[in-house]
Amino acid sequence: MTQSFIHIESPNYLRLQDLPTPPDWQGIFGNDNRLALEIGCGVGDFMLKTALDQPETNFIAIDFYNKGCDKTCRRIDRHGVGNVRVVRDEARAFVTERIPKGSLSAIYINCPDPWPKKRHRKRRLVNKEFIEFLLDYMVPGADFFFATDFDDYGIDVANALPGVTALENQFLPDLYRHEFPGYHLSKYMRKFMAEGKQIYFMHYKVK
């Protein structure tokens, strides 16, 4: 997909070509705090609120879209947030090449592209196979969060997650919930909710 390129000047933006494989994340953040990843940071409002709530956590926020990375950087820079780094890359490639195995304390995936046309749904990012792939990069007790506004995407992921035996559902006996107190809402979630849509929230932990 062709993107109009925005040159991002931010101390919190990491150019992919400058990152080793894998990077020294402790050196990049200047501490050994726990590491978390948001896949698809959008315009950065969820990441900003979450990073402010958890100053003891180092957050990596990735997005495929250059414009979203720019907006995320501008947002966190304005607020002087120092525990977020932003990278533009595709999720699977980034995790494989830039995240050490067994290093993530949390993964957040909020409202990924639902690929609504039936013939395109195989392009959806989150499924059982992708979640099992992520497990290698998470520590015991790590949190996995998923949220979507798209009904059949939410139901598909909710039905797939119990089959990932290394994860434990934090919402039992529910497979998902439409409300998640304390979990920040992104711009897109608020927009969808204003349109009368429900958000499907899921929260699991690595056993």
From TrEMBL:
<feature type="binding site">
    <location>
        <position position="90"/>
    </location>
    <ligand>
        <name>S-adenosyl-L-methionine</name>
    </ligand>
</feature>
<dbReference type="InterPro" id="IPR003358">
    <property type="entry name" value="tRNA_(Gua-N-7)_MeTrfase_Trmb"/>
</dbReference>
<dbReference type="GO" id="GO:0008176">
    <property type="term" value="F:tRNA (guanine(46)-N7)-methyltransferase activity"/>
</dbReference>
<comment type="similarity">
    <text>Belongs to the class I-like SAM-binding methyltransferase superfamily. TrmB family.</text>
</comment>
<keyword id="KW-0808">Transferase</keyword>
<keyword id="KW-0949">S-adenosyl-L-methionine</keyword>
<feature type="binding site">
    <location>
        <position position="38"/>
    </location>
    <ligand>
        <name>S-adenosyl-L-methionine</name>
    </ligand>
</feature>
<dbReference type="Pfam" id="PF02390">
    <property type="entry name" value="Methyltransf_4"/>
</dbReference>
<keyword id="KW-0489">Methyltransferase</keyword>
<comment type="pathway">
    <text>tRNA modification; N(7)-methylguanine-tRNA biosynthesis.</text>
</comment>
<feature type="binding site">
    <location>
        <position position="149"/>
    </location>
    <ligand>
        <name>substrate</name>
    </ligand>
</feature>
<comment type="function">
    <text>Catalyzes the formation of N(7)-methylguanine at position 46 (m7G46) in tRNA.</text>
</comment>
<feature type="binding site">
    <location>
        <position position="113"/>
    </location>
    <ligand>
        <name>S-adenosyl-L-methionine</name>
    </ligand>
</feature>
<dbReference type="InterPro" id="IPR055361">
    <property type="entry name" value="tRNA_methyltr_TrmB_bact"/>
</dbReference>
<protein>
    <recommendedName>
        <fullName>tRNA (guanine-N(7)-)-methyltransferase</fullName>
        <ecNumber>2.1.1.33</ecNumber>
    </recommendedName>
</protein>
<feature type="binding site">
    <location>
        <position position="63"/>
    </location>
    <ligand>
        <name>S-adenosyl-L-methionine</name>
    </ligand>
</feature>
<feature type="binding site">
    <location>
        <position position="117"/>
    </location>
    <ligand>
        <name>substrate</name>
    </ligand>
</feature>
<keyword id="KW-0819">tRNA processing</keyword>
